Amino acid sequence: MNVEEYWHLKAREAVEEHRGLIQSQRDEIERLQRRCNDLLHERSMMRAATAEDVRRFCLEYQRNQLLQQIVAASPSGAGAAGSLAGRQPAASSTDTIPLHLLLQFLHQYSGGMVPMSENIKRKRSRETMNGGCGPKTVSQQRLVQRAVARRRLRLREDDTIEELQQEHDQPYEQRPCADAAR
């Protein structure tokens, strides 16, 4: 093997190595794009689930208010459906939900992340709350958001499991989740 063949061989090896690096970077980019799309989809599904939960709360509140009106309107409560069938219920009591009830629901639903009312004035600024150890950087804030989202998802899954158990009256063995191993 002469010098020229040696350098051609080295050049081919370098070209193959660079092609391999480029391909691995392309694969990594594709993987990250898929992960990003999955996360965007997950976020939109979580928003939709949250909106559905708030919608369900509002409809349930409305239904309860309508039932209370029906019961209050009829002296015995037995023929209430027939007596109110022709007339519309009062719009003010069933079409509006008091703000404090909605804020209370959101506070409970978010695990305390949404404040109970907007009138609360803080004695300390947010930076000094919790001894000054709150999330300061964007990455720390994202970690907290992920933890809260996981907690909400677990609560929602637990509710679904309970509903399924009640429907089928069968015990369910809860499998350990992947997050528990971490």
Please characterize this protein's 3D structure.
The chain is mainly alpha-helical. The relative contact order is 0.05. It is elongated, with a radius of gyration of 29 Å. Helices cover 66% and strands 0% of the residues. Among the domains are: 1-71 and 97-117; 137-166. It is built from five helices and no strands. The protein has helices spanning 3-73, 80-83, 91-94, 99-109, 138-168.
Number of distinct helices = 5
Q: In sequence order, what are the helices and strands, one letter per element?
A: HHHHH
Helix/strand class: mainly alpha
Give the termini distance in whole angstroms: 56 Å
Helical content (DSSP H or I, runs of 4+): 55-70%
Shape type: elongated
Largest sheet geometry: none
**How many strand segments?**
0
Round the mean pLDDT to the nearest integer and report it. Answer: 77
Low-confidence stretches: 80-87
Q: Beta fraction of the residues?
A: under 5%
Estimated radius of gyration: 29 Å
Keywords: Coiled coil
Coiled coil: 15-49
Region (Disordered): 158-182
